[in-house]
Amino acid sequence: MADLAPLLAHPQPIPAHALLALGALAAGGLQLVLPKGRGAHRALGWLYVMLMGAVAVSGLFIAELRWIGPFSPIHLLSLVTLWTLFRAVDAAYRGDIATHSRAMVWLYGLGLVLTGAFTLLPGRAMHGVLFGG
Question: Any idea what the Cα angle at residue 29 is, between residues 44 and 105, rounded to 5°?
Fold first, then answer.
């Protein structure tokens, strides 16, 4: 069973960032398996966009890893995520569903699943949540 205590022991915005990411992981996962193009898809999609936007913005305030001054790859990832969200929503409004779909799948796979896997490394907050310590 997951123990949130190691995550909640970190200073903000790390706990908020992680919990928002878990919400986006769930909403995005549902989007991948549920029927597309209906009202439920649009409503869940907006939830996913809001969660991903909040994950990206909260990521801008995380400064644990410092590679160049106060910046790290997570800051670039946050900016790319915000830009991709904008482009994906714009594509949907323009009726370019192929671009919309591709952008959203890439965001889910690279922005959540792949980057989330790095949070499972020893010493990281989510490692403590799932594996203890």
Answer: 90
